[in-house]
Amino acid sequence: MTEFDEQDPTRHRILHAALAIFAERGFKAATVREICAQAGVNVASVNYHFRSKESLYREALAFAFEEAERKYPQTAFTDVSLPPAERLRQFIRTLLLRLLDDGQLGIHARLMAREIADPTGALDLIIDTVMRPRFLVLQDLVRQLAGSHWAQADIDRFIHNIIGQCLVYRHSRPMVERMSPDIIASPAAIDRTADVIHQFSLAALQHLAESAEVSA
Fold first, then answer.
1. How far is Cα 67 from Cα 60, in angstroms, rounded to an integer?
2. How high is the mean pLDDT of the chain?
3. Same domain, 10 and 26
4. Least enclosed by CB within 10 Å: which of 120, 128, 143, 165?
5. Is-contact 20 113, C-beta < 8 A?
């Protein structure tokens, strides 16, 4: 909750209601009227606090990322004093915890999944303000681990492969829970899964770096 939200509980209630309904129904199907009904406010409140449904949606997405950062901060991932391998481990662990959170952040993850599947103009804003800055950090981090000779497009491919290993546990969660329920059944299990993804990714990056040294 931002300082402004703490001073204005009506705005905060609208944001939380918007998160839940946008996550359940998507931007196009959700209506301001049902958001206001869930928040217990009149329709004019959205116009007063957010000006439009589009603006409310953008702020709901931004609020979701703020809440994720508050609960699972990425400070270790961006700490350049730590070894690159440890920073990568912290990134993977934090991402997996965010994706598999069964509390309020689970709603946030569903909302983002809907936005990616059926993007609006808000996706560009989220990419520019939240995702791209982190991606730039990952580019530098992965290049340190894989070697400086790789083309930028290949570095990006490595990054998307690492992220994809985490995303499968979110997007295929019903299947994972039926086939291998123990691997994400508890915080300790999720930590272990994050460690395996890290070990798998780090081994691949180190092999790529060593292969380049041999060929040189």
1. 10
2. 91
3. yes
4. 128
5. no
Q: Are 109 and 170 in contact (CB under 8 A)?
A: yes
CA distances from residue 149 to 156, 208, 209 in whole angstroms, order as listed: 13, 10, 9
- pLDDT tens-digit profile of 119-150? 999 999 899 999 999 999 999 999 999 999 99
DSSP-based three-state secondary structure for 159: helix
18 and 60 in contact (C-beta within 8 Å)? yes
Q: Are residues 140 and 58 in the same domain?
A: no
- 61-73: burial string, b at 16+ Cβ within 10 Å, e else: bbbbbbbbeeebe
Using alpha carbons only, give the angle 130, 72, 183 rounded to the nearest 5 degrees: 115
Residue whose entry in the numeric block shows the structure tokens 């599947």: 117
Do residues 109 and 191 both lie within one domain?
yes
Same domain, 60 and 109: no
pLDDT tens by residue, 88-124:
999 999 999 999 998 877 888 888 888 988 899 999 9
